[in-house]
Amino acid sequence: MKKIIVVLSLVAFAGSAFAADVIEMKRGVKFNHKAHQANVSGGCKVCHEKGPGKIEGFGKDLAHGKACKACHVEMKKGPTSCKDCHKP
Questions:
Q1: Which of 16, 24, 66, 73 is deepest in the core (most CB within 10 A)?
Q2: Cβ of 68: how many Cβ atoms within 10 Å?
Q3: What residues contact 51, with CB distance under 8 A and at least 6 apart?
Q4: Is the predicted pLDDT of residue 11 greater than 50, yes or no?
Q5: How do strand 30-32 and strand 22-24 relate by DSSP bridges?
Q6: Three-state DSSP class for residue 14
Q7: Residues 31, 25: Cα–Cα separation, whole Å
Q8: Quick one: 70 exposed, middle or buried, by C-beta within 10 A (0-12, 13-18, 19+)?
C-alpha cells in the first residue's frame, strides 16, 4: 500500500518537476514558468484547471483577458502592456 501512495504522489507532482523554466511562445512572448510557480498562490490549478500540461483553450483571448493580463492587473505585478510581453 505504501508503494502505491508513493507512486501516486510522484505522478501528481511530476508536472511541476519537469516544467520548463522559460517557455517561448508565439510573437516573441517568453513566459517564465518557474517564477510563476514560485509567486502564484493556489498552486498549479490556478492556470492548469485540468491538471499539468497545456492550458485548455489558451490563446490570445485567454492571455489578454481572463488569465494572464487580468491576473497581472489584479496583483499589480507583471506586464500589462503589449510591448511588455511582445518583444521584437
A1: 16
A2: 21
A3: 15, 44
A4: no
A5: antiparallel
A6: helix
A7: 7
A8: middle
Segment 52-59 mean pLDDT: 83
pLDDT of 67: 84
Domains of the chain: 2-85 (3.90.10.10)
Question: What cell was used for 10?
Answer: 510522484
pTM of the full structure: 0.63
- The share of the chain scoring above pLDDT 70, in percent, equals 78
What's the mean pLDDT in 59-86? 89
